[in-house]
Amino acid sequence: MRLSLKKLGPGFLFAGAAIGVSHLVQSTRAGADFGFGLLWALLLINLIKYPFFQFGPRYAAATGESLLEGYYKMSKGVLIAYFILTFATMFTIQTAVTIVTASIASSLFGGSSLVLWASIITGICIFILLIGRYKILDSLMKIIVLCLTVSTIIAVVLVLKPVVDINFSQIIPKDSVSIAFLIAFMGWMPAPLDISVWHSVWTVEKKKMDPTISIKQSRFDFNVGYITTTVLAIGFLSLGALVMYGSGESFSEKGSEFATQLINMYTYSLGDGARVIIGIAALTTMFSTTLTTLDASPRVMRSSLEIINGKKYSKGYLLWLLVLVTGTLSIFFFFISEMGLLIKIATILSFLTAPFYAIINFKLITGKNTPKEAHPSKFLKSYSIISIAILLAFSLWYLSTL
């Protein structure tokens, strides 16, 4: 076990990228609006997405290459489709995570201009990425995720004490607004499925540093990160349900007000002394998500173009970084007051594209380009096929309500 713990890395990067909007915003809002009524959806979507996230590090550990190379080996058209989908969603995703980060910073340190905070945060991220100091944050990721997990669990336990009657009745939304929220909630829970590509890239880098990492060790690393994200999601949903549900209050659509309400949930259960600590933990978590997405999208866009065109682009990463920043800040200036709408658009798009990633990840991991010893078991194959069917069914159900 000690040897395996030393090899942890990409799993916590996955957790750092996943524990963001889906947890701090969507899970708490689900609890505040529906109590524990959507717990079934949280658990179901984590179970459904599990194999397809796992196939990313599994493939990378077995072949030494990322899913991008695997997609190209399947078909050039598959990689082109991935490139187009990533380009179509990366701006709204980056804007959504930046808005939440800026909102928490504004709530903690003051200042009414979210545009200013977004610009400062984006500037800091660019500086870190350009000087190559992201490894500093990587080394702190385990501590950040651990601290937020422990504080969230403690907060839930303390809130539970005065609660006598907890209603665990499950709810299936019927109206179009509630169905749209459900799909948005599941879209980024625990993360968009395209993060499986990022995870495979991180695993390749980890394997370069330590070639002895096996498929089993890579799977253990992934499971630690995945279980952590699931536990935290349940914790945030519980806080929303126990503190906000039935109180007559609801979370604001405005970013700064939402961030204040979020931090106040912890203050309510842990006391005023916890405000700064929890606020900084939430800000650090969201900052790591913002930084990770700002780094990963340009990286995979550059790599995709290099693989498709068969040549290297020395300035490709910088070019795509500038494209992403320009697009993100442009959206930010025009839709600054619509945090809820932006998050809803980004999360629904992620859910509707989930079947695509599920199918190609499954075909790749069970195909000829993956070594036989890395192929999933018969149980996992059946599990994956059922999960794909459920993802498609939910997507069609949502589209039928529009």
Question: Could you explain how this protein is built, in words?
Answer:
The chain is mainly α. The protein has helices at residues 2-6, 10-18, 21-34, 39-63, 67-74, 76-109, 114-131, 134-160, 176-187, 195-209, 215-244, 255-270, 274-309, 316-334, 339-365, 378-400. The chain has one domain: Orthogonal Bundle (Hydantoin permease), CATH 1.10.4160. α4 packs across α16. The protein starts with a helix and ends with a helix. Mean pLDDT is 82; it is low at 1-5.
Secondary-structure element string? HHHHHHHHHHHHHHHH
Q: Domains counted in the coordinates: how many?
A: 1
Average pLDDT, all residues: 82
- The name of the CATH superfamily reads Hydantoin permease
Query: What is the CATH level 1 assignment?
Result: Mainly Alpha
Sheet bearing the most strands, described?
Answer: none
Number of helices: 16
Would you tell me the structural class of the helices and strands?
mainly alpha
What percent of residues are in strands? under 5%
Radius of gyration: 20 Å
**What's the CATH architecture?**
Orthogonal Bundle
CATH topology name, in short, is Hydantoin permease
Number of strands: 0
- Overall shape: globular
Straight-line distance between termini: 50 Å
Segments where pLDDT lies below 50 for 5+ residues? 1-5
What's the helical proportion of residues? over 70%
